[in-house]
Hints:
Shape: elongated
Largest sheet: none
Structural class: mainly alpha
CATH class: Mainly Alpha
CATH topology: Four Helix Bundle (Hemerythrin (Met), subunit A)
CATH architecture: Up-down Bundle
Helix content: over 70%
Order of helices and strands: HHHHH
CATH superfamily: HPT domain
Amino acid sequence: MAENDEAPLDLSRLQAIAPNNVEFHERLLDLYLGESRKRLQALGRAVAEDDLEGIRREAHAIKGSAGNVGARRVAEAAARLRAAADGGEGAACRSCWADLRSEMEAADGWIRDHLGHTGR
């Protein structure tokens, strides 16, 4: 987990999209969880195969979906990974991949706890 006490998600992002619509927020977070797991697996394969185009594609998608739900640290880590892939930096990709995975695990755990507290 990152050395930051800030919550992994900025719920004000969800409020900006759909003010006070808790049901919509929960559905969006649920979709994010499912999609992020798939993307993380695909990204792991791309990193293992040094597939820079696959890394770019998956990091870009993760950055976008994380930004939509307010997972800023995930989005920032994905942006760093994409930049490393754009630069053809395989070693940097592996390091950024580890950081992204850690941030995604923190965000996913936080979301599961949040959804659990709201009745899901």
